[in-house]
Amino acid sequence: DKAGFDHYMAKEIAEQPGVVGAAVNSYLPAGGDLVELPGGNIDFTKIERMTMVACGTAFYACLTAKYWFEKLARIPVEVDVASEFRYREPPIPAQTAALFVSQSGETADTLAALRYCAGKADKILSVTNVAESSIARESDQTYPIFAGVEIGVASTKAFTCQLTVLLSLALKAARDRGTMSEQELTDAAAAMRSVPGLLNVALEQTDVIKAHARKLSEARDILFLGRGLMYPLAHEGALKLKEISYIHAEGYASGELKHGPIALIDKKVPVVILAPSDDLYDKSISNMQEVMARSGKVLLISDRKGLDHAGDVWGQIAMPECHPLVSPIIYSIPAQLLAYHTAVAKGTDVDQPRNLAKSVTVE
Ligand code: F6R
């Protein structure tokens, strides 16, 4: 039941304030800043390193989590796509927690990577949307994301719920390890509780995003750029766009622009820049100027302050101001809606894109 929406994907994008709210309430109950883990406790003081493994969108959730765990809890994190990890047969040092992220819990390569780590890693953890799935069952501890059934092949609400759970785990790790002050933990918990409301504000930009998407639908190639926590989201935005609109898109770290991709830029190539007004904003804006100097069409996604400071660009999408830690969850909305409305403008089969399956249980 699409509940009045044209596609499941649109319905699932719109559901995010509710389902992310359910995840926040489950991991941060009772108004304080204590994280409770519905999947059972972990003592992060015993963990010296983490290895995170997943495919596709779940891989980009892991890449985002690396920034959180390293910055907040000072735990070194390696992230890999499951199909590479499993055949590389990497060494697993003592005191490693291996974490697998999978919406379906049945992705063949991710499951094989988990089985490779069983008996080698100190802990096998997973973050899934299906409690009875193979990945959930074969983990020492599994953390539910509360997204509800996701039908659209392009993952949307599962991604933001995965991010919510991974940030909760990182905050729990930071508390265990004493790497954040009480004040920082309180602020971070408050920021997480503000997410559902901010997602609603982000969704109010739908008409603006739709108008930009119509212009994007005429492009052959599109670049997505981001720094820090926006870097994994640049990849996710590009993946979402290519899988449902069939427009070629690539995500890059903004700082990598001058190491190659800048050669692609001309007046036909839209460049979507994800740049909230945080510590890295000035660096992102200087990359934006490099793009504009080569006649690239910049679509800037930032908050009011960031947009006002940037001057005249080809297109702007305004996001609410938010605590920098939760920005990837909020900025997922424009990334998803751009892909969705571009695909709708092109008339593709949004919920069932060609060549793709919802659950990849074969290699
Ligand atoms: C992209 C998408 C895929 C999946 C990937 C992993 O929108 O849906 O990239 O994220 O196939 O699937 P799960 O999370 O079920 O392991």
From TrEMBL:
The keyword Repeat applies. It comes from the Bacteria. It is an enzyme of class 2 (transferase). GO terms for molecular function: carbohydrate derivative binding; glutamine-fructose-6-phosphate transaminase (isomerizing) activity. One of its GO terms (cellular component) is cytosol. Keywords: Aminotransferase, Cytoplasm, Glutamine amidotransferase, Repeat, Transferase. Residues 34-179, 212-353 form the SIS domain. The keyword Protein biosynthesis does not apply. It catalyses: D-fructose 6-phosphate + L-glutamine = D-glucosamine 6-phosphate + L-glutamate. It is found in: Cytoplasm. Its EC number is 2.6.1.16. The active site is at K358 (for fru-6p isomerization activity). GO terms for biological process: amino sugar biosynthetic process; carbohydrate metabolic process; fructose 6-phosphate metabolic process; protein N-linked glycosylation; UDP-N-acetylglucosamine metabolic process. Catalyzes the first step in hexosamine metabolism, converting fructose-6P into glucosamine-6P using glutamine as a nitrogen source. Homodimer. This is Glutamine--fructose-6-phosphate aminotransferase [isomerizing]. It comes from Planktotalea frisia. The lineage of its organism: Bacteria, Pseudomonadati, Pseudomonadota, Alphaproteobacteria, Rhodobacterales.
